[in-house]
Amino acid sequence: MAALTAALPSSPATAKLAASPSPSPASHFLSFPSRLRNASRVAVRTAQVSTAETAEPAAAAAAPVKEKKISKKQDEGVVTNKYRPKEPYVGRCLLNTRITGDNAPGETWHMVFSTEGEIPYREGQSIGVIADGEDKNGKPHKLRLYSIASSALGDFGDSKTVSLCVKRLVYTNDAGEVVKGVCSNFLCDLKPGAEVKITGPVGKEMLMPKDPNATIIMLGTGTGIAPFRSFLWKIFFEEHEDYKFNGLAWLFLGVPTSDTLLYKEEFEHMAKIGGDNFRLDFAVSREQTNAAGEKMYIQTRMAEYKEELWELLKKDNTYVYMCGLKGMEKGIDDIMVDLAAKDGIVWSDYKKQLKKAEQWNVEVY
Ligand SMILES: Cc1cc2nc3c(=O)[nH]c(=O)nc-3n(C[C@H](O)[C@H](O)[C@H](O)COP(=O)(O)OP(=O)(O)OC[C@H]3O[C@@H](n4cnc5c(N)ncnc54)[C@H](O)[C@@H]3O)c2cc1C
Ligand SMILES: NC(=O)c1ccc[n+]([C@@H]2O[C@H](COP(=O)([O-])OP(=O)(O)OC[C@H]3O[C@@H](n4cnc5c(N)ncnc54)[C@H](OP(=O)(O)O)[C@@H]3O)[C@@H](O)[C@H]2O)c1
């Protein structure tokens, strides 16, 4: 039996969640104590980094063979596709709140839907949403996938809700017209009480490692933070008889501006209660640079710790998860190529081994 812990700011959070029908900015989403044990870790930094080389060494050692483990993907309890587009689950929006500030480039919303426990998802899975209305051919809209942003217990701790973190897609097309993405706008405009058609759950790539002593390195850009909020709630805000985390959870989050630091207060609260078990690093691309004056992307921040990250990656119980913008994958690979080469290892070979051992997990889009 799992429960929300006393450490979780559950009363203010839950009260706020349940009683907050109107949008409010990120900074007011959850009210946490302001004193942070690990405040220095999240401060703006511009440390010296070297540019990673992308070329792999010509003659390199074979990548070390990884230890065989119990696959998280074979876990019998993991449910997929319980609900399909023809017969979706119809939940209700319980809460929808904007979590980016007024000056943010674009809007991101956090929303909670009722499931009555009928969508038995795990941390790291996604759901599909079918927007109301029809497409230009008069057919129902196709589903869009969204990473689940809540732990399996859900934001209210009763296993009866599922939460998403959705960016409103608005762009100007070649003809100069403003186009609004179908499903993201449907979701961001949902009012409490409105119905929402849900499919799934789906996905096994981003399931959490079973080992409670694992090192979990989470690399998220923008709304790619969703599965990591889900992991971290389970790790730091809940109590589970069969899962007591005593490893290292290290979150890197890349966003454009400080107004878009999604769930910042929650993560800072985790840094306070997580002590040595949690590390938190932000990369704010339009406000920070490295010593070379380059934009602070997630891989730029990671490069500050590259030797340490490489040492961690040599361990059998280090698991890397990447979620968000497709472009981030290459930037992260570029750092790894250089590091692996120093040990005479071809990164692309080693990455294959890591993937096979479920230690390198990518869901980018
Ligand atoms: C596994 C997975 C998980 C996901 N999780 C999340 C999540 O947690 N949060 C989230 O917000 N999104 C997530 N997404 C993305 C989500 O599924 C939708 O693609 C997104 O919300 C846009 O859908 P839409 O219906 O609003 O846009 P649509 O109406 O489908 O429009 C999108 C289309 O618009 C066009 N387009 C988009 N931008 C531009 C541009 N700048 N210029 C020209 N054309 C453009 C492209 O053709 C694009 O395919 C995830 C995707 C996947 C695959
Ligand atoms: N599971 C999934 O597949 C999944 C889940 C959630 C979201 N998504 C997708 O992830 C994307 C996130 O979008 P968002 O709008 O939420 O993000 P966002 O707020 O725009 O943040 C993205 C951050 O990544 C930076 N960035 C841009 N190019 C990069 C690169 N090559 N390498 C590293 N960082 C880079 C951006 O910097 P600048 O803008 O300053 O250049 C920005 O700081 C969307 O496409 C969304 O649909 C996918």
Task: Please give the structural blueprint.
Layout lengths: L1 E3 L5 H9 L70 E10 L9 E7 L11 E5 L13 E4 L13 E7 L2 E3 L5 E3 L1 H7 L6 E8 L12 E7 L4 H12 E3 L7 E8 L8 H11 L3 E7 L13 H6 L2 H8 L4 E7 L3 H15 L4 H10 L3 E5 L1
Parallel strand pairs: 10-12, 10-14, 12-13, 14-15
Antiparallel strand pairs: 1-11, 2-3, 2-9, 3-6, 4-5, 4-9, 7-8
Helix pairs in contact: 3-4
Bound molecules: flavin-adenine dinucleotide and NADP nicotinamide-adenine-dinucleotide phosphate.
Describe the overall structure.
- The chain has helices at residues 10-18, 182-188, 226-237, 264-274, 298-303, 306-313, 328-342, 347-356, and strands spanning 2-4, 89-98, 108-114, 126-130, 144-147, 161-167, 170-172, 178-180, 195-202, 215-221, 238-240, 248-255, 278-284, 318-324, 360-364.
- A six-stranded antiparallel sheet has the order 5-4-9-2-3-6, covered by helices on one side. A five-stranded parallel sheet has the order 13-12-10-14-15.
- It has two domains: 76-202, Beta Barrel (Elongation Factor Tu (Ef-tu), domain 3); 215-364, Nucleotide-binding domain of ferredoxin-NADP reductase (FNR) module (Rossmann fold), CATH 3.40.50.
- By secondary structure, it is α/β, with parallel strands linked by helices.
- The chain binds flavin-adenine dinucleotide (FAD) and NADP nicotinamide-adenine-dinucleotide phosphate.
- NADP nicotinamide-adenine-dinucleotide phosphate (NAP) binds at residues 147, 167, 221-224, 226, 254-256, 260, 285-286, 297-299, 323-325, 327-328, 331, 363-365.
